[in-house]
């Protein structure tokens, strides 16, 4: 199902917003993909067809846009959903992982009982930039004993190094499309 036509449709539907959130940055906005029912369904179908025959136990998703894709995917695959949240958002006992951003640091957390040792997990987010958030999520899942079978995202920004960082953890990575920095709009 991950055909060129679907990838092109999704890529064309993503809105590029120049100079947001700061000058020199082009934000890749998935909102138009979510707003169009045909494109949103095709997006989810790409992931469903990729993972429907794999033996997975859970879909873990990164706060917050990853929740949109991951919850629909978990539902379609009849799997549980595990949120990886920003610090301070989960009400029960948590395990946390700090990571470096281009402008500082941040922390993500998971409930200590969100995965069991040996569970096979797919990790989902909307976009791979520097890879810090997803790499931290991989570390959290592994610390709790999960086997992260693959990380997946809609968009890869390969020039920012995140996809390489994720692959360097030994975790396979699947993305639907990529944007280069030279593509401003």
TrEMBL record:
Q: Which SUPFAM superfamilies match?
A: PRTase-like
Q: Which reaction does it catalyse?
A: AMP + diphosphate = 5-phospho-alpha-D-ribose 1-diphosphate + adenine
- Kindly list the places in or outside the cell where this protein is found, as annotated in its UniProt entry: Cytoplasm
Looking at the record, the residues that make up the Phosphoribosyltransferase domain are 54-159
Q: What Enzyme Commission number(s) apply to this enzyme?
A: 2.4.2.7
- GO biological process, alphabetically ordered: adenine salvage; AMP salvage; purine ribonucleoside salvage
Its keywords, alphabetically, are: Cytoplasm, Glycosyltransferase, Purine salvage, Transferase
* Pathway(s) served: Purine metabolism; AMP biosynthesis via salvage pathway; AMP from adenine: step 1/1
**At the top level of its lineage, which domain of life is listed?**
Bacteria
Keyword Transferase in annotation: yes
Q: Name one GO cellular component term.
A: cytoplasm
In Gene Ontology terms, what is one molecular function of this protein?
AMP binding
The record's annotation in PANTHER family points to: ADENINE PHOSPHORIBOSYLTRANSFERASE (PTHR32315:SF3)
Q: Which family does it belong to?
A: Belongs to the purine/pyrimidine phosphoribosyltransferase family.
Give the function comment from the record: Catalyzes a salvage reaction resulting in the formation of AMP, that is energically less costly than de novo synthesis.
- HAMAP family referenced in this protein's UniProt entry, alphabetically: Aden_phosphoribosyltr
Q: How does it assemble?
A: Homodimer.
Q: What is this protein called?
A: Adenine phosphoribosyltransferase
Q: Which organism is it from?
A: Corticimicrobacter populi
């Amino acid at each position: 199902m991950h055909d060129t036509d679907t990838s092109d449709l999704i890529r064309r539907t993503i809105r590029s917003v120049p100079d947001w959130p700061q000058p020199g940055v082009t934000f890749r906005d998935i909102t138009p993909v979510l707003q169009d029912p045909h494109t949103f369904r095709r997006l989810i179908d790409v992931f469903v067809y990729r993972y429907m025959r794999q033996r997975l136990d859970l879909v873990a998703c990164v706060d917050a846009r990853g929740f949109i894709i991951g919850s629909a995917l978990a539902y379609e695959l009849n799997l549980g959903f595990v949120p990886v949240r920003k610090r301070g958002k989960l009400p029960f006992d948590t395990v946390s992982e700090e990571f470096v951003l281009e402008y500082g640091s941040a922390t993500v957390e998971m409930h200590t009982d969100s995965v069991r040792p040996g569970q096979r997990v797919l990790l989902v987010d909307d976009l791979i930039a520097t890879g810090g958030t997803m790499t931290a999520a991989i570390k959290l899942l592994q610390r709790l004993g999960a086997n992260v079978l693959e990380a997946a995202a809609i968009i890869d920004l390969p020039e920012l190094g995140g996809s390489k960082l994720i692959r360097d953890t030994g975790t396979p990575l699947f993305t639907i499309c990529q944007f280069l920095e030279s593509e401003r709009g």
